[in-house]
Protein backbone atom coordinates (compact mmCIF):
# COMPACT_ATOMS: atom_id res chain seq x y z
CA UNK A 1 0.00 0.00 0.00
CA UNK A 2 2.95 2.28 0.41
CA UNK A 3 6.21 2.56 -1.42
CA UNK A 4 9.69 1.80 -0.16
CA UNK A 5 9.36 1.13 3.55
CA UNK A 6 5.74 0.16 3.24
CA UNK A 7 5.46 -1.10 -0.33
CA UNK A 8 1.82 -0.33 -1.04
CA UNK A 9 0.32 2.79 -2.71
CA UNK A 10 -2.42 4.48 -4.76
CA UNK A 11 0.28 6.96 -5.84
CA UNK A 12 -1.14 8.35 -9.05
CA UNK A 13 2.22 8.64 -10.74
CA UNK A 14 3.30 5.60 -10.76
CA UNK A 15 -7.22 -0.04 3.78
CA UNK A 16 -21.80 3.24 11.25
CA UNK A 17 -21.55 3.64 14.81
CA UNK A 18 -22.33 0.10 15.83
CA UNK A 19 -21.91 -1.33 19.27
CA UNK A 20 -21.99 -5.04 18.74
CA UNK A 21 -23.37 -6.75 21.77
CA UNK A 22 -22.85 -10.36 22.75
CA UNK A 23 -25.61 -12.61 21.58
CA UNK A 24 -28.44 -12.60 24.15
CA UNK A 25 -28.44 -15.80 26.10
CA UNK A 26 -31.57 -17.62 27.14
CA UNK A 27 -32.12 -17.77 30.87
CA UNK A 28 -32.07 -21.36 31.96
CA UNK A 29 -33.78 -21.70 35.28
CA UNK A 30 -34.99 -24.66 37.13
CA UNK A 31 -37.08 -22.90 39.69
CA UNK A 32 -39.92 -25.25 40.13
CA UNK A 33 -41.62 -22.93 42.53
CA UNK A 34 -42.26 -20.31 39.88
CA UNK A 35 -45.77 -19.94 38.71
CA UNK A 36 -46.76 -21.17 35.25
CA UNK A 37 -47.10 -17.66 33.91
CA UNK A 38 -43.59 -16.72 34.88
CA UNK A 39 -42.22 -19.93 33.36
CA UNK A 40 -44.01 -19.19 30.09
CA UNK A 41 -42.58 -15.69 30.02
CA UNK A 42 -39.10 -17.06 30.57
CA UNK A 43 -39.46 -19.58 27.76
CA UNK A 44 -40.75 -16.89 25.42
CA UNK A 45 -37.72 -14.74 26.20
CA UNK A 46 -35.39 -17.65 25.50
CA UNK A 47 -37.12 -18.33 22.18
CA UNK A 48 -36.73 -14.71 21.10
CA UNK A 49 -33.07 -14.79 22.11
CA UNK A 50 -32.37 -17.93 20.12
CA UNK A 51 -33.75 -16.20 17.05
CA UNK A 52 -31.30 -13.32 17.26
CA UNK A 53 -29.34 -13.16 14.01
CA UNK A 54 -25.57 -13.00 13.93
CA UNK A 55 -22.98 -12.42 11.26
CA UNK A 56 -21.14 -15.52 10.05
CA UNK A 57 -18.21 -16.57 12.22
CA UNK A 58 -15.64 -15.16 9.79
CA UNK A 59 -17.25 -11.72 10.03
CA UNK A 60 -17.25 -11.30 13.79
CA UNK A 61 -15.22 -11.82 16.90
CA UNK A 62 -16.42 -14.02 19.70
CA UNK A 63 -18.26 -12.08 22.40
CA UNK A 64 -16.09 -11.23 25.36
CA UNK A 65 -17.17 -10.48 28.88
CA UNK A 66 -17.94 -6.91 27.81
CA UNK A 67 -19.47 -5.74 24.55
CA UNK A 68 -17.02 -4.63 21.86
CA UNK A 69 -17.44 -1.72 19.51
CA UNK A 70 -16.61 -2.81 15.97
CA UNK A 71 -16.45 -1.20 12.58
CA UNK A 72 -19.45 -0.65 10.38
CA UNK A 73 -20.56 -4.03 9.15
CA UNK A 74 -18.46 -5.81 11.75
CA UNK A 75 -15.09 -6.16 10.00
CA UNK A 76 -11.89 -4.52 11.18
CA UNK A 77 -8.97 -5.62 9.01
CA UNK A 78 -5.41 -4.56 9.77
CA UNK A 79 -2.27 -5.10 7.73
CA UNK A 80 0.79 -6.52 9.48
CA UNK A 81 4.06 -6.15 7.55
CA UNK A 82 6.74 -8.82 7.72
CA UNK A 83 9.52 -6.23 7.34
CA UNK A 84 8.18 -4.35 10.37
CA UNK A 85 10.15 -6.69 12.64
CA UNK A 86 13.39 -5.03 11.54
CA UNK A 87 13.81 -1.24 11.81
CA UNK A 88 10.33 -0.70 13.14
CA UNK A 89 10.77 -3.32 15.85
CA UNK A 90 7.07 -4.13 15.64
CA UNK A 91 6.19 -7.75 16.36
CA UNK A 92 3.08 -9.89 16.64
CA UNK A 93 3.22 -9.48 20.42
CA UNK A 94 2.60 -5.74 19.95
CA UNK A 95 -0.78 -6.57 18.42
CA UNK A 96 -1.68 -8.15 21.74
CA UNK A 97 -0.11 -5.63 24.15
CA UNK A 98 -1.61 -2.63 22.32
CA UNK A 99 -5.12 -4.02 22.66
CA UNK A 100 -5.43 -4.19 18.87
CA UNK A 101 -6.08 -7.94 18.86
CA UNK A 102 -9.32 -7.33 20.72
CA UNK A 103 -10.50 -4.99 17.96
CA UNK A 104 -9.33 -6.91 14.92
CA UNK A 105 -11.49 -9.41 13.09
CA UNK A 106 -8.87 -10.09 10.39
CA UNK A 107 -5.13 -9.60 9.87
CA UNK A 108 -3.69 -9.28 6.37
CA UNK A 109 -0.09 -10.49 6.47
CA UNK A 110 1.98 -8.49 3.97
CA UNK A 111 3.50 -9.55 1.71
CA UNK A 112 4.07 -12.71 -0.20
CA UNK A 113 5.72 -12.35 -3.59
CA UNK A 114 4.46 -13.30 -7.06
CA UNK A 115 7.20 -14.89 -9.15
CA UNK A 116 7.14 -17.15 -12.18
CA UNK A 117 3.34 -17.12 -12.21
CA UNK A 118 3.20 -18.46 -8.63
CA UNK A 119 2.71 -17.31 -5.06
CA UNK A 120 6.07 -17.39 -3.26
CA UNK A 121 7.42 -16.55 0.19
CA UNK A 122 8.40 -12.91 0.60
CA UNK A 123 10.87 -13.05 3.52
CA UNK A 124 11.56 -16.51 4.91
CA UNK A 125 13.55 -15.22 7.88
CA UNK A 126 10.85 -12.89 9.15
CA UNK A 127 8.04 -15.22 8.13
CA UNK A 128 9.10 -18.48 9.76
CA UNK A 129 12.78 -18.56 10.80
CA UNK A 130 13.37 -15.70 13.23
CA UNK A 131 13.83 -16.88 16.83
CA UNK A 132 11.80 -15.17 19.57
CA UNK A 133 12.74 -14.92 23.23
CA UNK A 134 10.22 -15.44 26.00
CA UNK A 135 9.95 -11.65 26.46
CA UNK A 136 9.23 -11.16 22.75
CA UNK A 137 6.75 -14.01 22.40
CA UNK A 138 2.97 -13.70 22.44
CA UNK A 139 2.60 -16.42 25.09
CA UNK A 140 5.79 -15.74 27.04
CA UNK A 141 7.47 -18.93 25.84
CA UNK A 142 10.81 -18.78 24.04
CA UNK A 143 11.47 -20.53 20.75
CA UNK A 144 13.82 -23.49 20.82
CA UNK A 145 16.55 -24.18 18.31
CA UNK A 146 14.94 -27.35 17.03
CA UNK A 147 11.29 -26.38 16.77
CA UNK A 148 9.87 -26.75 13.23
CA UNK A 149 8.26 -23.29 12.99
CA UNK A 150 9.43 -19.94 14.33
CA UNK A 151 9.11 -16.33 13.14
CA UNK A 152 5.94 -14.34 12.56
CA UNK A 153 3.98 -17.40 11.49
CA UNK A 154 4.50 -19.15 14.82
CA UNK A 155 3.69 -15.96 16.73
CA UNK A 156 0.50 -15.46 14.72
CA UNK A 157 -0.57 -19.01 15.53
CA UNK A 158 -0.07 -18.18 19.20
CA UNK A 159 -2.12 -15.01 18.77
CA UNK A 160 -4.92 -17.03 17.19
CA UNK A 161 -4.87 -19.38 20.17
CA UNK A 162 -5.58 -16.37 22.39
CA UNK A 163 -8.23 -15.06 19.97
CA UNK A 164 -9.86 -18.09 18.34
CA UNK A 165 -12.14 -16.08 16.05
CA UNK A 166 -9.33 -13.93 14.65
CA UNK A 167 -8.70 -14.71 10.97
CA UNK A 168 -5.39 -14.32 9.15
CA UNK A 169 -5.02 -13.85 5.39
CA UNK A 170 -1.76 -13.87 3.45
CA UNK A 171 -1.51 -10.84 1.15
CA UNK A 172 0.42 -11.12 -2.09
CA UNK A 173 1.84 -8.39 -4.26
CA UNK A 174 1.74 -4.84 -2.98
CA UNK A 175 3.34 -1.87 -4.68
CA UNK A 176 6.77 -3.45 -5.08
CA UNK A 177 5.81 -7.01 -6.00
CA UNK A 178 2.80 -6.49 -8.29
CA UNK A 179 4.84 -6.92 -11.45
CA UNK A 180 4.45 -10.70 -11.26
CA UNK A 181 0.67 -10.69 -11.63
CA UNK A 182 0.82 -10.25 -15.40
CA UNK A 183 2.50 -13.62 -15.80
CA UNK A 184 0.19 -15.17 -13.20
CA UNK A 185 -2.83 -13.96 -15.18
CA UNK A 186 -1.73 -15.98 -18.19
CA UNK A 187 -2.48 -19.20 -16.28
CA UNK A 188 -4.88 -18.33 -13.44
CA UNK A 189 -5.53 -21.97 -12.46
CA UNK A 190 -1.82 -22.71 -12.01
CA UNK A 191 -1.40 -19.51 -10.01
CA UNK A 192 -4.33 -20.41 -7.75
CA UNK A 193 -2.94 -23.92 -7.25
CA UNK A 194 0.44 -22.54 -6.19
CA UNK A 195 -1.14 -20.10 -3.75
CA UNK A 196 -3.36 -22.76 -2.21
CA UNK A 197 -0.41 -25.11 -1.73
CA UNK A 198 1.73 -22.39 -0.15
CA UNK A 199 -0.95 -21.24 2.28
CA UNK A 200 -1.59 -24.84 3.29
CA UNK A 201 2.04 -25.82 3.76
CA UNK A 202 2.11 -28.37 6.64
CA UNK A 203 4.71 -26.29 8.50
CA UNK A 204 2.15 -23.57 9.27
CA UNK A 205 -1.00 -25.65 9.15
CA UNK A 206 -4.03 -23.82 10.48
CA UNK A 207 -2.55 -20.32 10.22
CA UNK A 208 -4.13 -18.89 7.08
CA UNK A 209 -7.87 -18.53 6.62
CA UNK A 210 -7.63 -17.15 3.13
CA UNK A 211 -5.76 -15.03 0.60
CA UNK A 212 -5.66 -11.31 -0.16
CA UNK A 213 -4.54 -10.12 -3.59
CA UNK A 214 -2.88 -6.68 -3.78
CA UNK A 215 -2.39 -6.20 -7.51
CA UNK A 216 -1.28 -2.62 -8.12
CA UNK A 217 -2.74 -2.34 -10.75
CA UNK A 218 -4.46 -4.71 -13.19
CA UNK A 219 -4.45 -3.37 -16.76
CA UNK A 220 -2.99 -0.08 -15.51
CA UNK A 221 0.27 1.43 -14.27
CA UNK A 222 1.78 1.26 -10.80
CA UNK A 223 5.48 0.70 -10.21
CA UNK A 224 5.29 -0.93 -13.65
CA UNK A 225 2.54 -0.99 -16.26
CA UNK A 226 0.34 -4.05 -16.73
CA UNK A 227 -1.21 -4.88 -20.10
CA UNK A 228 -2.96 -8.15 -19.23
CA UNK A 229 -6.35 -6.83 -20.34
CA UNK A 230 -9.63 -5.78 -18.81
CA UNK A 231 -10.73 -9.34 -17.92
CA UNK A 232 -7.49 -10.61 -16.41
CA UNK A 233 -8.28 -9.61 -12.82
CA UNK A 234 -11.73 -11.23 -12.87
CA UNK A 235 -10.29 -14.41 -14.36
CA UNK A 236 -7.63 -14.52 -11.66
CA UNK A 237 -10.15 -14.05 -8.86
CA UNK A 238 -12.44 -16.68 -10.40
CA UNK A 239 -9.61 -19.21 -10.35
CA UNK A 240 -8.75 -18.38 -6.75
CA UNK A 241 -12.37 -18.81 -5.68
CA UNK A 242 -12.60 -22.16 -7.47
CA UNK A 243 -9.49 -23.40 -5.69
CA UNK A 244 -10.02 -21.89 -2.25
CA UNK A 245 -13.71 -22.80 -1.99
CA UNK A 246 -15.17 -21.47 1.25
CA UNK A 247 -11.87 -19.93 2.39
CA UNK A 248 -11.63 -16.15 2.30
CA UNK A 249 -10.64 -14.51 -0.98
CA UNK A 250 -10.23 -10.71 -0.88
CA UNK A 251 -8.50 -8.02 -2.92
CA UNK A 252 -7.07 -4.58 -2.24
CA UNK A 253 -7.94 -2.40 -5.22
CA UNK A 254 -7.35 1.09 -6.57
CA UNK A 255 -9.31 4.01 -5.18
CA UNK A 256 -8.83 6.16 -8.29
CA UNK A 257 -12.38 7.30 -9.13
CA UNK A 258 -11.30 10.08 -11.48
CA UNK A 259 -12.82 10.19 -14.98
CA UNK A 260 -10.92 7.63 -17.04
CA UNK A 261 -9.01 6.55 -13.95
CA UNK A 262 -7.81 3.15 -12.78
CA UNK A 263 -11.23 1.97 -11.60
CA UNK A 264 -12.35 2.06 -15.22
CA UNK A 265 -9.54 -0.09 -16.63
CA UNK A 266 -10.64 -3.38 -15.04
CA UNK A 267 -13.92 -5.29 -14.70
CA UNK A 268 -14.29 -4.98 -10.94
CA UNK A 269 -18.01 -5.77 -11.12
CA UNK A 270 -17.51 -9.26 -12.56
CA UNK A 271 -14.61 -9.98 -10.22
CA UNK A 272 -16.72 -8.94 -7.22
CA UNK A 273 -18.77 -12.13 -7.39
CA UNK A 274 -15.66 -14.14 -6.54
CA UNK A 275 -14.39 -12.11 -3.58
CA UNK A 276 -15.60 -11.93 -0.02
CA UNK A 277 -14.78 -8.23 -0.03
CA UNK A 278 -12.75 -5.51 -1.69
CA UNK A 279 -10.37 -3.17 0.10
CA UNK A 280 -10.33 0.04 -1.98
CA UNK A 281 -7.21 1.91 -0.86
CA UNK A 282 -8.83 5.20 0.08
CA UNK A 283 -5.59 6.91 1.09
CA UNK A 284 -2.51 8.21 -0.73
CA UNK A 285 -4.70 10.30 -3.00
CA UNK A 286 -2.17 13.13 -2.69
CA UNK A 287 1.40 13.34 -1.45
CA UNK A 288 4.86 14.83 -1.84
CA UNK A 289 5.62 12.90 -5.03
CA UNK A 290 4.24 16.24 -6.28
CA UNK A 291 7.13 17.95 -4.55
CA UNK A 292 5.95 21.54 -5.04
CA UNK A 293 2.41 20.80 -3.94
CA UNK A 294 -0.28 21.90 -3.79
CA UNK A 295 -0.62 20.56 -0.27
CA UNK A 296 -3.66 18.34 0.09
CA UNK A 297 -4.84 15.67 2.54
CA UNK A 298 -3.83 12.18 1.46
CA UNK A 299 -7.04 10.55 2.74
CA UNK A 300 -10.00 12.93 2.38
CA UNK A 301 -13.42 11.48 3.08
CA UNK A 302 -15.13 14.02 0.85
CA UNK A 303 -14.32 16.56 -1.80
CA UNK A 304 -13.78 20.21 -0.83
CA UNK A 305 -13.29 23.50 -2.58
CA UNK A 306 -9.84 23.51 -4.14
CA UNK A 307 -9.19 19.76 -4.04
CA UNK A 308 -6.49 19.11 -6.68
CA UNK A 309 -8.24 16.27 -8.54
CA UNK A 310 -11.82 15.16 -9.07
CA UNK A 311 -12.65 11.67 -7.84
CA UNK A 312 -9.81 11.56 -5.34
CA UNK A 313 -11.74 11.09 -2.10
CA UNK A 314 -13.34 8.18 -0.27
CA UNK A 315 -16.94 9.12 -1.00
CA UNK A 316 -16.23 9.32 -4.72
CA UNK A 317 -14.43 5.95 -4.69
CA UNK A 318 -17.24 4.13 -2.90
CA UNK A 319 -19.92 5.82 -5.02
CA UNK A 320 -18.16 4.80 -8.23
CA UNK A 321 -17.76 1.19 -7.14
CA UNK A 322 -21.44 1.02 -6.23
CA UNK A 323 -22.41 2.56 -9.57
CA UNK A 324 -20.31 -0.11 -11.27
CA UNK A 325 -22.42 -2.75 -9.57
CA UNK A 326 -20.25 -3.73 -6.61
CA UNK A 327 -22.54 -4.21 -3.57
CA UNK A 328 -21.93 -2.23 -0.38
CA UNK A 329 -21.71 -5.49 1.55
CA UNK A 330 -18.50 -6.30 -0.31
CA UNK A 331 -16.78 -2.96 0.29
CA UNK A 332 -14.55 -1.89 3.14
CA UNK A 333 -13.16 1.63 3.41
CA UNK A 334 -9.46 2.25 4.00
CA UNK A 335 -7.62 4.22 6.65
CA UNK A 336 -3.96 5.19 6.78
CA UNK A 337 -2.29 5.02 10.18
CA UNK A 338 0.30 7.55 8.94
CA UNK A 339 0.55 11.02 7.48
CA UNK A 340 1.98 12.47 4.29
CA UNK A 341 3.73 15.81 4.30
CA UNK A 342 5.69 18.58 2.59
CA UNK A 343 8.46 20.99 3.60
CA UNK A 344 8.88 24.65 2.69
CA UNK A 345 5.20 25.41 3.27
CA UNK A 346 4.09 28.83 4.58
CA UNK A 347 0.33 28.46 4.12
CA UNK A 348 -1.57 26.73 6.90
CA UNK A 349 -4.66 25.86 4.86
CA UNK A 350 -4.52 23.21 2.12
CA UNK A 351 -3.48 24.32 -1.34
CA UNK A 352 -0.13 25.84 -0.44
CA UNK A 353 3.12 25.53 -2.34
CA UNK A 354 6.09 23.50 -1.09
CA UNK A 355 9.75 22.92 -1.82
CA UNK A 356 9.80 19.14 -1.30
CA UNK A 357 8.76 16.27 0.94
CA UNK A 358 8.89 16.62 4.70
CA UNK A 359 11.44 14.45 6.53
CA UNK A 360 10.26 11.04 7.73
CA UNK A 361 11.78 8.35 9.90
CA UNK A 362 11.94 5.72 7.16
CA UNK A 363 11.08 7.62 3.99
CA UNK A 364 10.73 11.27 3.02
CA UNK A 365 7.18 12.59 2.89
CA UNK A 366 5.66 9.97 5.18
CA UNK A 367 5.52 9.47 8.94
CA UNK A 368 3.62 7.31 11.42
CA UNK A 369 0.64 8.75 13.27
CA UNK A 370 2.25 7.84 16.59
CA UNK A 371 5.07 10.29 15.77
CA UNK A 372 3.04 13.07 14.15
CA UNK A 373 0.45 13.36 16.91
CA UNK A 374 3.07 15.00 19.15
CA UNK A 375 5.67 16.22 16.65
CA UNK A 376 3.17 18.09 14.46
CA UNK A 377 -0.30 18.13 16.08
CA UNK A 378 -3.36 18.73 13.94
CA UNK A 379 -4.26 22.38 13.37
CA UNK A 380 -7.33 22.00 11.16
CA UNK A 381 -9.69 19.73 9.25
CA UNK A 382 -10.74 19.56 5.62
CA UNK A 383 -12.68 17.01 3.64
CA UNK A 384 -13.34 14.92 6.74
CA UNK A 385 -9.70 14.43 7.71
CA UNK A 386 -7.09 16.41 9.63
CA UNK A 387 -4.06 18.47 8.64
CA UNK A 388 -1.22 20.07 10.55
CA UNK A 389 1.04 23.05 9.88
CA UNK A 390 4.12 23.24 12.10
CA UNK A 391 7.12 25.40 11.24
CA UNK A 392 7.59 25.01 7.49
CA UNK A 393 6.04 21.52 7.36
CA UNK A 394 2.51 20.59 6.32
CA UNK A 395 1.08 17.14 7.10
CA UNK A 396 -2.25 15.39 6.73
CA UNK A 397 -3.43 12.37 8.68
CA UNK A 398 -6.45 10.90 10.39
CA UNK A 399 -7.06 11.31 14.11
CA UNK A 400 -9.35 9.36 16.44
CA UNK A 401 -11.99 12.05 15.87
CA UNK A 402 -11.89 11.89 12.05
CA UNK A 403 -11.75 8.08 12.10
CA UNK A 404 -14.90 8.00 14.22
CA UNK A 405 -16.69 10.31 11.80
CA UNK A 406 -15.60 8.18 8.83
CA UNK A 407 -17.07 5.16 10.60
CA UNK A 408 -20.42 6.92 11.01
CA UNK A 409 -20.45 7.70 7.30
CA UNK A 410 -19.52 4.10 6.41
CA UNK A 411 -22.45 2.81 8.45
CA UNK A 412 -24.83 5.04 6.52
CA UNK A 413 -23.44 3.56 3.32
CA UNK A 414 -23.94 -0.02 4.51
CA UNK A 415 -20.26 -0.86 4.08
CA UNK A 416 -18.83 -4.14 5.33
CA UNK A 417 -16.29 -2.53 7.67
CA UNK A 418 -12.91 -0.84 7.74
CA UNK A 419 -9.31 -1.77 7.03
CA UNK A 420 -6.08 0.07 7.65
CA UNK A 421 -2.45 0.26 6.61
CA UNK A 422 -0.82 -0.68 8.95
CA UNK A 423 -0.58 -1.79 12.58
CA UNK A 424 2.84 -0.37 13.45
CA UNK A 425 1.77 3.22 12.72
CA UNK A 426 -0.61 3.29 15.68
CA UNK A 427 0.29 4.27 19.24
CA UNK A 428 1.45 1.67 21.75
CA UNK A 429 -2.05 1.59 23.25
CA UNK A 430 -3.89 1.33 19.92
CA UNK A 431 -5.34 4.83 19.88
CA UNK A 432 -6.45 4.76 16.24
CA UNK A 433 -7.78 1.22 15.99
CA UNK A 434 -9.89 1.81 19.10
CA UNK A 435 -11.51 4.79 17.36
CA UNK A 436 -12.79 2.64 14.48
CA UNK A 437 -16.55 2.19 14.68
Automatic annotation (TrEMBL):
Q: What class of enzyme is it?
A: hydrolase
Entry EC number(s): 3.2.1.14
Q: Is Iron tagged as a keyword?
A: no
The transmembrane residues are none
GO MF entry, a single one: hydrolase activity
Q: Which residues form the GH18 domain?
A: 74-437
UniProt xrefs under InterPro entries: Chitinase_II/V-like_cat, Chitinase_insertion_sf, GH, Glyco_hydro18_cat, Glyco_hydro_18_chit_AS, Glycosyl_Hydrlase_18
Keyword terms, alphabetized: Carbohydrate metabolism, Chitin degradation, Glycosidase, Hydrolase, Polysaccharide degradation
**Chemical reaction(s) catalysed:** Random endo-hydrolysis of N-acetyl-beta-D-glucosaminide (1->4)-beta-linkages in chitin and chitodextrins
List every stretch annotated Disordered.
1-21
The record's family statement is: Belongs to the glycosyl hydrolase 18 family.
Q: What is the name attached to this protein's record?
A: chitinase
State the organism named in the record. Streptomyces spirodelae
